Amino acid sequence: MAEEWGQVVIKTSDELMTEIKSAENDDAADFVQRLAAVANIDGAMLNDADSRIGDVVLKNGYALFNFSCSDWSRISAAFVGKASDIEYYFSGRDEYGTAEFFALNDAGERFGYAFDQGGDAWDIDGYEDEVTGKLKEWKSSVPDALKAAFPDFTDTSELMFYGP
Questions:
Q1: How far apart are the first and last CA of the chain?
Q2: Other beta carbons less than 10 A from residue 134's beta carbon
């Protein structure tokens, strides 16, 4: 399994927002299960997930945390694909060059996209335009209030485009 790193931003009940702060720099498995229950998804599929998190920053009603472990992409796909009653945003990379972006915004719109930063797809006409368009779509799904709270969250300038 590839090592992953990135950031997750959530917005949920005040009680869970406080609880995530207590999971800071630790395994957040209990928090993930409680969030799954609030978000109306089956937490059983997340039982074996490596859910360690780094520092947690609470700002303007959002919680942002960094991660550096192998399962947050899978956890995030589950939340964005099935959750309700929360907001959930993900920006992650892995050691093999994959970049992934997820969003479940306050309007209930869901977004997910992954691309290989260095694969053969860059040889295909229009692929760079597709990636650029999808990144713009992800950024537009992130609310202005979140962007104001964490302006660097939607910064994709460090991505390595090996295309033409």
A1: 30
A2: 16
CA atoms within 13 A on the CB side of 101: 22
Among 148, 66, 154, 145, smallest CA distance to 103 is for 154
Indicate the pTM of the whole model.
0.90
pLDDT tens, residue by residue, 98-148: 999 999 999 999 999 999 887 788 888 998 899 999 999 999 999 999 999
Task: Tell me if 5 sits within 8 A of 92, measured CB to CB.
Answer: yes
Token pair for 94: 């892995």
d(CA 42, CA 39): 9
Helix intervals (H) in the chain: 14-22, 29-38, 72-82, 127-141, 144-149
